[in-house]
Amino acid sequence: MLKIKEAIVVEGRYDKNKLAQLVDTVILETSGFGIFKDKEQLALLRRIGEKRGLILLTDSDGAGFVIRNHLKGALPPDQVKHAYIPDCFGKERRKRKPGKEGKLGVEGMEPSVLLQALRRAGATILDEEEEREESPPLTKADLFACGLSGGEGSREKRQALLKKLGLPAHLSPNAMLPVLSALYDRESLLEEMKKL
User: Fold this and answer.
1) How far, rounded to the nearest angstrom, does the alpha carbon of residue 6 sit from its chain's CA centroid?
2) Inter-helix orientation angle 154-165/186-195, to 10°
3) What whole-number distance in Å separates Cα of residue 15 and Cα of residue 80?
4) What pLDDT band is residue 23 in, cutting at 50, 70 and 90?
5) How far apart are CA 180 and CA 177, in angstroms?
6) What is this structure's pTM?
7) In whole angstroms, what separates CA 159 from the centre of its chain?
8) Is the separation of the CB atoms in 88 and 75 below 8 Å?
9) Distance of alpha carbon 8 from alpha carbon 139, whole angstroms
10) Helix (H) or strand (E) holding 195
11) Contact 102, 62 (CB under 8 A)
12) Rounded CA separation 80/104 (Å)
């Protein structure tokens, strides 16, 4: 599994699931064309881009390029790298019939093709020495210990933390973990969480 510094932006959850099996980094979804109306998600992409950089990895069909071009105009160009998958015709296993253009999306690509696309885009691949220096990521147990999940009032505490940190209010506990780990130092964040 490759550990990549930049966060990767994909169109949907199936793309995210596919990449999560190949790379260790934050993977964010645009919810397809939902990104056009979601100002909070766009603001989150900007923040993570500022901190870590972003790699856009959208499908090679027309819709993928519309989403990519929207993000290209909405995000600072110096924080964005572009990964492209080749035009491969076929259909994904979960679908009954091929997409409108008949091309495979990110979820239908072979793992080697996706890794090659990320390397060509200039993804910063972290080696083991750098990995050891990093503090461990937040865990679900941390959220539970701080009263942010699994207990009475945890939803309200989560909402308060998200508001305090200027993050989208709709982040679920599972979605919060990689975002918080990408933006904040673990120790200082745990201190903030305990203050709630």
Assistant:
1) 9
2) 120
3) 19
4) very high
5) 5
6) 0.73
7) 20
8) no
9) 20
10) helix 186-195
11) no
12) 24
